Amino acid sequence: MYRSFALISLGLTGLLQSVHAQETLESCLQNNKIQTSFAAQNSSTWFQDSAGWQGRVRPVPSGVAFPTTVEEVRMSLKCATDANVKVAALNGGHSFVSYGVGGNDGALVLNMTAFNSMSYDKATGYFTVGGGAHVGPAATFLWNNYGAHFPHVRGNWVGLAGSAIGGGLGTTSRFLGTTMNNLVSVTMALANGTVVEASESVNTDLFFAIQGAGSSYGIILSLTLKTWKPTYPDVTKWTIVLPTNTTLDIGVKALLAVQEYGLAESTPDEMYIRWRLTVPVWGGSGYFYGDPIAFSSVIQPLMDALPVGTNLTTSVADFWTMENDATGGLNATSETSNSRSFYVKSIVLTKDHPFTYENAAALYNFTSLAFNRSDISQSGLLDLWGGRANAKLQECDTANAQNGNLWIVRWEGDLKGSDTARGQPTLYTQNAIDYVKSGMQPFLAQLAAEGAQIRGYANYRDSELTPQQWSSQLYPNGNFARLQQIKRVVDPSELFNPNAQSIPV
User: Fold this and answer.
1) Per the structure, how many domains does the chain have?
2) CA distance 318 to 123
3) What is the CATH number of the domain that holds 145?
4) Domain extent for 152
5) CA 47 to CA 52: how far, in whole Å?
6) Which 8-state DSSP code applies to residue 340?
7) Is the pLDDT of residue 297 over 70?
């Protein structure tokens, strides 16, 4: 009886504390005249305000604030601190696990939409953008006004800040590096309200942490990137399709031929390759940013290594046309893809542990070739990484290690009929998640048998990983311990720890 009474008392105490925290948060934000959205006050817009792009993970925030100035960001952080509420920054909201809206229930979400300023320094070629800018508008502004480009992910309304601190692999990354690799500096608001700049020369530890784990350390107000202007005005797009009678054996050998081609010193880094994981259509596609006249001779060694009957199609267009081809709707003025519910299982292979016949066969055989579900559809891709920009890196240069990365392997299951407006409820079952995971397991087991060190890609977060798995895959060797040391200095109260993969002190 006493134990039951004690449990009830604890439950009531927790409920009262939660109610008090909510009231404290709401009154503080409203007293500081910060635009807000709360479930009880904004029933018509709340679901849109509080929803991320990922429909499978739907946390319920304590509230959403819309700061328009640095001072309002600082006051929002103080309000959250006083209410003992965690904080998440919402940029594009395209986190695969809804970390932009907290990841878990109860966070104060800072919608950074108002921080979308853009400026370009002609002398240095540096591009400075606000922490709320999206990839498409930023890329369009830079191209239309200055004919310049920065490497970016293939999503038009993805948050630029979020994709930068998570990696940002794009079609030009083999020779230019990822968005992360092109960061010059970041301006960030810390938990105590201090606004600091971090770069390779100032606050270097924080700059390291931002590159892979930035959301655990503060709110990005702006970031500055290196840019590039095309050497050639035109780009060659290509598609390769293997013969229709391609078997698993032939398909695996074709992938190994692509890998050998990508690693060859004679293959220019201006060659971008995305190979298909979803079969029975075997093949891939990409873009060549070198001289279009040279394309035929550049691609020929790969064609010679592929099966007889392999078909190659090409087209040539100006750089900006191909930018919009690679990233649909890049120059659009709004989101071009609906919210959807999905689960992604993704890893990174390094040059030290590349595809082998055995692990590639396990990958294809137990994912796409074995797929048999009616509630979800399969999708998979293999993005070739590497290149000269990557070769310059060391493991300790960025928190999410990128040195020596060779392939991103992405396998996912998409809930059928889940392409809806943000905020619409969908049901993605644990059984479906387990099914997607099980398809990758033989591949992972083979990698383990080969002694491969598995890495993760921070833009493709996996909500099913254990703390030991995500910490070692995303932040290998000494990187995770270093992140914890920095955390104890920058955010000792763990204000920016709203989700399961936030860096703990």
Assistant:
1) 1
2) 25
3) 3.30.465.10
4) 118-230
5) 10
6) B
7) yes
